[in-house]
Amino acid sequence: MPANPRAWLVSAGRFKAIDGLRRRARFDASLGRVAERLEAPVPDGDTGDDSVVEDDQLRLIFTCCHPALPPDAQIALTLREVCGLTTEEIAHAFLTSPPTIAQRIVRAKAKIRDARIPYQIPSPTDLTDRLHSVLHTMYLVFNEGYAASSGSSLTRADLSREAIRLGRLLVELLPDPESVGLLALMLLQDSRRRARASATGELVLLDEQDRALWNQEQIAEGRSLVERALRSRRVGPYTVQAAIAAVHAEAPNAADTDWPQIVGLYDVLMRMDPSPVVELNRAVAVAMRDGPEAGLALIDRIFERGELLDYGLAHAARADLCRRLGRTIDAQRSYARAFELTRQEPDRRFLERRLAELGR
Amino acid sequence: MRYLCLLYGDESRWEKVTKAEMDALYEEYVALTDDIKRSGHHLAGDPLYPTKSATTVRVRNGRVSATDGPFAETKEQLGGYFLIEARDLNEAIQIAARIPAARTGCVEVRPIWEMGERLTEDTFSAYRGHA
Predict the structure, then answer these.
(1) Residue A106: which of B87, B111, B129 has the nearest Cβ?
(2) Which fold has domain A258-360?
(3) What is the Cα A54 distance to its own chain's centre?
(4) Residue boundaries of the structural domains of chain B
(5) What pTM was computed for the model?
(6) Residue of B nearest to A69 (CA)
(7) Predicted ipTM?
């Protein structure tokens, strides 16, 4: 631990030009081996060796994403210290005020100092859990950029771009299969960015998107990363989600998508990381494979357990299946509930449009 | 740095515990204590009697009031503590994770504010920063 944490966090500014740094590629190094090498004590001063700079960057990432810090502080600290965004830029991206972000960062640094959160790469035994915390923070940043939690802009591309940049850095520094899987997932989701909103800023769902607008370069990179992560035989939830995104990316249109494959991947995901949201996504894929009735039964089963009742997307998915089955009143009721629960402007306009169509 | 590990759990589970289960758990705590004594992490540690035996003391306007029970009625109660010496928070978390209470309840890890003879400007600002 450096004597003065403030000083190292401030001096961390020298890492901000991460794109400009020359780094050795270590794509095939195994996680354990990398971890052992990084276990070495913090060297004094900058020796000018690339690997020292890399290790310092990893230490910085693991410290900023320490699970003892609140998630919003992890995000603010990472964006500022690792990505080099200004407090104003972070505040703008999260639709909050610069003093709020500044205070979050000050508190996080105080906790780093007072609880003595070390500036180090976690030990091999902790590495998997701690890496998960880093990946989670990164994905939160990406999603905040991709599906803004409130406000009128459908995507805030800058945040997603930062998350992808961070993802690339992490894959280079610590090529764990799940780091690779998350980078693939972000690239594949981001490849649809231009198709997700109409010229007037309306949300366009996957099955109605103009696939010619998808970014083929990102898709190609994402697919090769998924394959690389799958080859590792240590497949985690991000890799499975990336594989699902890759199946979508291969399909010429919604109807010709390999839905059995997607349902199968959701089955795998349910075993690895079960959650009602994964179950909902699986239900939608089952509806595409076996028809709306089958999917509807699965969604209603989730609701009957009392889960996802406050989740707008679940009601929107249910509404869509009812609409396809011609159950207009049921569909209207679910769209209305989804509308009540949704804060994002483009999503609200989309739901309003669907309600208006059913009203005719 | 010293850390206080506070062991929280739902103490109503003791109502159903068997003697054999209690013995096994006791042995586990003895083993852990021996272990972290040997590794130099252990400074102090004790189990506490259940909160039924607790008294909460407050002084308001110079008057002492003692009331029955813990300071807050919560689902999980403070059941014991370890005072440990650890290099940093990561090491403290590793030790806290070995405490059996972490499996059934939780362990709160609090850095100890090392009191000097007087309050330093740094400690004062640290407190203010967290408020």
Answers:
(1) B129
(2) 1.25.40
(3) 23
(4) 2-130
(5) 0.76
(6) B89
(7) 0.73
